[in-house]
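Why does residue order matter? Because the sequence determines the fold. Keep that principle in mind as you read this record.
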Amino acid sequence: MRIDIITVLPELLKSPFEASILKRSIEKGLVEVHFHNLRDYTDKSYNQIDDYQFGGGAGMVMMIEPIDKCITELKSQRSYDEVIYMTPDGSTLNQRMANSLSLVENIIILCGHYKGVDQRVRDTLITKEISIGDYVLSGGELGAAVLCDAIIRLIPGVLNNETSALTDTFQDDLLAPPVYTRPAEYKGLKVPEVLLNGNFPKIEKWREDQAYERTKKLRPDLLDND
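Structure:
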């Protein structure tokens, strides 16, 4: 997979990809992540990439020209499955969306800033708009990092144990069951006996029941989606 991220703050994005799972996935050659500074695609004074709104109003708007130039250049080099715009009013990122995007080959992610982008960008260049929650950030970079993490960890070979991702919270629209490790007893707090007896069919049944009960208690809305 190749991910191209268009941003005005590439330095803000680099750190998440220089450690842990994301770093290893890049070193293994399982994913390529490239950052493109939008200011490199403008011929305006002071590398300007935003301007005032037509009709007045507070806040600057990212101009269409540098965004179009960058996306056009990238598309001239390869095809892309999705051109994603990170925006608070996009579709909320969920596990099903991450699962689907992990199967594609190439994606572009555009990080918004200021009051947003010229609507013509959204109308003609963007194929998918994604939000990571009902709140506003200073820019789309942190959202892009979250999206990339959610996608990349699902790519085969990224995790040491590939079945781990399949039992994560929100897979099958359920929260994950409780997990325990050694010691089996600590200050009188005991691990459930079913997890210690080696009866794997019973263990799986316990986990399924716990996942359902936790979801029913903490996120009943997930069950309503069925």
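DSSP finds eight helices and nine strands in the chain.
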